[in-house]
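Protein entry
_____________
===
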Amino acid sequence: MRNREKFSILKSITALALILLCLVAAQWQYHRGVDRHHRNFLIEKNIAAPALKLAEAEKNLLVNEWRTVSAAGTFDPTQTILIRNRYFEGKYGFEYLTLFISDEGKKFWVDRGWVIAGKDAVTAPNIPDIPAGMVQIVGRLRLDTSLPQGSFFALPATGGGLISKWNAQKEVITEPFYLDLLSGSWRSTTTVTAQLPELSDGPHMAYALQWLFFAGLVGYGRVLIRRSR
């Protein structure tokens, strides 16, 4: 077999490999788009669904994530942490979480909302007082895997780090979920609650079509090269 024929076969094999890679990438992007659309649909559905008791929602956390739930219990004023790099209306601030102990004895974090940062990096923000005694709370059920991740927990009451690391360091065992606080029995003024995510399907379907287009270009280019000979 002449060298020219060998080189032609090599180019054909390379083109087929590139087409295959483009098809794999297109399929990957397509499935990412489908999964994201499905998740957004579930979020919208659960946000609009009637409120549940927390104990009822706990029976199936995956199905009930983002549902509005209610619970009764007490806050632990010694267990509050701040998450940095949170913005609201263009202003820099923090989200603040406080440990909550339900009347059933279960411990979980409650994201109490957003607070603007202090005047400088060493000035702690003005965090609303933690309510004392038994309270009623209403919030959105969130799974631990969807917990907002800052680069670090900043200016914590005690310790610092990601939730799992913080729990381990302080020997705190919590449930595998947390709540975005929406309202509480002690509230007399409106505060900034945790924000909903942007429910966009993203560019995945467009990227899938783009990869198919690239695969077509590779095939078309290989045909042109062969014809030019």
User: Anything to note?
Assistant: Residues 3-43+205-228 form one domain. The radius of gyration is 26 Å. The longest helix spans residues 3-48.
